[in-house]
Amino acid sequence: QVQLVESGGGLVQAGSSLRLSCVASGVSIRTSGMAWFRQAPGKAREFVAAFSRTGGYTYYSDSVKGRFTISKDNAKNSIDLQMNSLNAEDTAVYYCAAGPRIITSSTRNAAQYDYWGQGTQVTVSS
Question: pLDDT digit string (tens) for 107-117?
Fold first, then answer.
């Protein structure tokens, strides 16, 4: 049974930082594409950042590039998302996703991920 458990969300002021974590069980982050997505109220789920399934490449959306950093800890089978310079537009529920079968060209496509966490709320006040 695959489980992805996110933590680290909260309410912060604009300009602040937060670090999200996702601990995986039942799936290895070493052989899966691992990603963060987010969904704001009334909006579609949006790609944020990801590791490719092979090669260790990282990908970021244009809206977070330079502010967010995705990292992983193979020993803990977990990934993190360091979020700096947060603004109100970053307010959303953040989801961790795993794609053991995903191909590189689909890294940003939510539909290609097989497993999802329950999400963690990030609220940025302006």
Answer: 999 999 999 99
